[in-house]
Amino acid sequence: MRAEDLRALLDDARSLGIVSVGEQSAGALWEGAPDPWAASLSVQILRRLARTSAGFALAAHRSSLAVSIARRLNVSTQGKGVAAAQGRFGLGRLSLARYVAGAPLEDEDLAMIADYYAASGERLLTADDGFDWLLAPVVATAGIVDWAIHPRDALSLRRLDHAHGFDELATFAFRPASKAGPRRTTALDSATARARLGEALALEALGLLAIALGAAEHAYGIARSYASTRSQGGRRIERHPAVQLLLSSSFTAITTVDALLESATRRPADAAGLPRILGARAEAHPLLCRAANDALQVLGGTGYMRDAGAEKIVRDENHLRACCGSPAELSLFVAEAERLHG
Amino acid sequence: MADPVAPPPGQRALDGHVAPTSRLSPHLAFGRLSPVIRPLVRYERRDPWDQDTECLPKPLADYRRRVRAFAVRHLRPRALGADLEPHPPLGECSRANLDLLRAAGQEGLLSDLLPRPFGSMHPRLLSHAPFLPQALKAEELAAVDGGLMLLVCAHDLGVAPLVLSGDMRTVRRHLLPAFRASEKGEPHLFAYAITEPAAGSDVEDGHGAALHRPGVVARRLPGGGYGIRGRKCFISGGDIARAVVVFAALEGEGVESWTAFLVHRGAPGFRVARTELKMGMRASGAAELELDDVSVAEDAVIGGLRNGWALNRATLNMSRIPVAAMAVGFARAATEAATSFACRFHLAGKPLVDFQEVQLALAQMMAETAAARSMVWQTASRRPARQAEASAAKFYCSDAARRVCEMAMDLMSNQSVLHENGVEKALRDARLTQIFEGTNEINRLGVIEDDQERLLDAVEAARRQGGDR
């Protein structure tokens, strides 16, 4: 899908109320989250969108998430938003887990969080480039993660072309254009700030996981279809154990992640639910990368070529795995959150 | 929490480790052992690449150093950029790629499948391990850039059937002029064409081939020679090769009649139909070749009529070892990129390499890469090239390479998706080594095919002893 086609489709989705803009829309993505039922509905929508286009699903997710978070922050917005929940790198190691859990913070935690969500720091984002404002966490006061709303023209944007996946979206580095920092920040008390950040991280994680699952299902569908038509050694390749093992591996990875996702959405998508949700991501993304790679492998040389579609899904899966915490970083977060939980 | 055994002021140490200058450091402690024992355990600060190179016999060590120097000089400046360049018009070679091939030819890297005076390989290299030089070359070039590596190394695959024909007339007539031209800076490339639109793995495995109906067919021409018709696809370097070894069945016969024909680029009816947009190794073209009654003379037959299948399998046994080596090169590239990143990228004032999870990941990547390299060097040092060993090296190393690249991506987290950081490209490049020269599934079956007699004997022996009781 070309970037301009995706943007037009995204505008259609906004006018249909599927993707949020300023006003409340009962059917919009992430509307009503972190309530489990509402979050689960959004997860299922994103998963289905990603079965056709992971790029469109990611654009819709991050645009709707921005509006949803802004509403939870009691901030009114207009135009097209985009949310960037991730900080400078990774997932803030153990410090972010301690912060979200409300644990006492040591100096190195404060330093880590200040670096992770530095007001002037450059961060990465993959999204549709046609946004009017960007919502991102920021450390305005030591030990409190607040939120900044950056009008597009107040940002310094650096396009990073040829990113690994999501060819139809833009990957860019952003930071406030002026040293004075963002134009507008919320001023939350510490408990509310922790709660809002926990929700945002949980919803971002659920969205990424749902999209990755849908994309893997897309790859599996391509592989199944190919295996049912391509013959070798006098029979369809779907009847060769070597291919059956690949398809089975892909299928099993998908069903395993389906169960993980279902479990992760059973409780509210908030700070308390984060270990379950991030733990699901830590396990799920390697499985889904395997599922997409196994699907590509079924196609052999054809799978390596762009025309077949499988190689892009592999790249998109790898890209999603790298967003907002790699499996090791997610696992560290979970370990620390669980340690604190006792 | 502060490290309770942090090094004293003025001493350097990574987090979680005693300083190299500490009395508890094994490096220093070894120095206090008996002088008799010290040579066995002493620590010398060495670059791992140098250490590996010195394990090789001198001619091979020299060759490895020479290829690395070539890669650094000619590939590195273009490494990331070549991946992004648009495809040149069909059948054309970009100026930059042509310059690289000229340099490779002058360096002898396009003529080193044969020893001097025929090719450029040092005669002493033959006495050591005939397949190791190609493996060393593939790793060194792949470690810098996969696409540019393939641009150079796909040619070796095209040359291999001519060498394996064992026919000195073929070598003199077709290879020697090409080698001389390449050495003078006029690259004369060969390509290897087995894959057909309806047949990938079929032609890389005996069982699949048994029922395969070849789509490229050669018919005897009334005045002598052959007319070849059909299409070949995914041919690495087929877009710029001056000559292509085309495997075709004889008219009215099956794949057992496969014959290798040398088809020259300008032959009437020969056309580069398209080049593929690939996931990785993009600097090298994968071409679809159209043969519309291409006429070739009798002497275009390589290795004899109906010997194509044998030549194909023998070529794959040779070429799968360099593919394993390419995979090692990609794993090395990813490990180097991740290590460099971990040392320069800081979190809250600390380099990433200070964090224990990062150290664990780097150690795993280094170990997997070293293990894969050991397998390649061991396999490449044996003569003859056995299918079981070549295939095992190919699938093991390529699977390891993807694992290592994925670990590097994980280590570099959200920064890993950026093209400029190099590691995502290593992963894209590495992915092809799990597919070409036979998918890894075909290569696993190739191990069993090669070991079939022994396994059948074991089945027979078990039956004689009463079956599964």
Characterize the structure shown.
- The complex is a heterodimer of chains A (342) and B (469).
- With 342 residues, chain A is of the alpha+beta class.
- Chain A has two domains: 3-192, no CATH class; 195-341, Up-down Bundle (Butyryl-CoA Dehydrogenase, subunit A, domain 3), CATH 1.20.140.
- Chain A is 55% helix and 13% strand.
- Chain A has eleven helices and nine strands.
- In chain A, strands 1-3-4-7 form a four-stranded mixed beta sheet.
- In chain A, strand 3 and strand 4 (144-151) form a beta hairpin.
- The relative contact order of chain A is 0.14.
- Chain B has 469 residues and is of the alpha+beta class.
- Chain B has helices at residues 26-30, 38-41, 48-55, 58-75, 79-84, 95-106, 123-128, 132-142, 146-164, 168-183, 206-210, 308-344, 356-380, 387-412, 423-433, 440-450, 452-464, and strands spanning 190-193, 217-220, 226-236, 243-250, 259-264, 270-275, 286-296, 301-302, 346-347, 350-351.
- In chain B, strands 1, 2, 3, 4, 5, 6, 7 and 8 form an eight-stranded mixed beta sheet that branches. Chain B has a two-stranded antiparallel sheet with strand order 9-10.
- In chain B, helix 8 runs antiparallel to helix 9 (146-164) and helix 12 (308-344) packs parallel to helix 14 (387-412).
- Classes of the chains: A alpha+beta (342), B alpha+beta (469).
- At the A-B interface, helix 5, helix 7, helix 8, helix 9 and helix 10 of A face helix 11, helix 14, helix 15 and helix 16 of B.
Briefly summarize what is shown.
The complex is a heterodimer of chains A (342) and B (469). Chain A has 342 residues and is an alpha+beta fold.
Question: What are the defining features of this structure?
Answer:
heterodimer, A: 342 residues, alpha+beta, Butyryl-CoA Dehydrogenase, subunit A, domain 3, 2 domains, 4-stranded mixed β-sheet, 11 helices, B: 469 residues, 8-stranded mixed β-sheet, globular
